[in-house]
Amino acid sequence: MDAVTPREVILCEVGPRDGFQYEEAVIPTDLKVEVVRGLAAAGLPRIQVASFVHPRKVPQMADAEEVVARLADVEGVTLSGLALNRKGVERARASGLRAVDISIATWDDHSLENAGMTVDEAVEQAAEMVATAREAGMEVQVGLQTVFGFRKPGDTPVERVVGLVKRFVRLGVDSISLADTTGMAGPVSIASRVEAVRRVAGDVPIVLHLHDTRGLGMANVYEGIRCGVDRFDTAFGGMGGCPFIRGAAGNVPTEDTVHLLASLGISTGVDIAGVANVTHRVADHLQKDLPGRMYRLFD
Fold this sequence. Notes:
The protein contains 11 helices and 8 strands. The protein is an alpha/beta fold.
């Protein structure tokens, strides 16, 4: 492996947000709270617990404030929420969260569908969102969507991605997330885009948010590791998916990622069996198998 390979990797569990909001069947608030507590007990250091969006658009997240309130006693874990506009940031702040993930599109079509505004409008608003979160003393991550392709692999101009990263680094964000929203990344594009972003990100950590749509999820994690990335978003059981790709698989599974990293001698502090127990609980509730592999080895 390359000399830049990290010895420790931080995983952010996004299943309670990215995974749950993709499901049509209602996930009860009690189960959401149980899941987050189980993931925290399994050693996940960061958990994205909800998105603060309009309940008509994402009914699954209508109980965001209640979920956060019932997790107030969880210690030693960074709990965060996703926001797409300033109101979302204000709701996250009012809920008591100390970390917010601001997500913006890199294509107008996607931005208009997801947030009802163009990319330029979203970027201007995101700058205000960063300022609002900073004033509240919140940790701020800015995530860029479809970094590795929107309609086809590589069609998102790297110059656009780099320009957006430059802008938000200047605003003083705590981390930058590069999302493979449509699952079009491959090891070559992971390497080239991470390198391009690293040149302008400086000391700001880069996070990879990868999907397993075309079966390259673990290969892309491995390439990210080779490029020195030490923070990844994962979802228990591989929950989630992409609305643009029919039948698309979800996020890279937490259990599978931990197993891969352990095989490379890289520590995460995450107990696979503990995460697998959570996955089985949710799979039983949904009455279906989830895409991940490793959780199936634990009963």
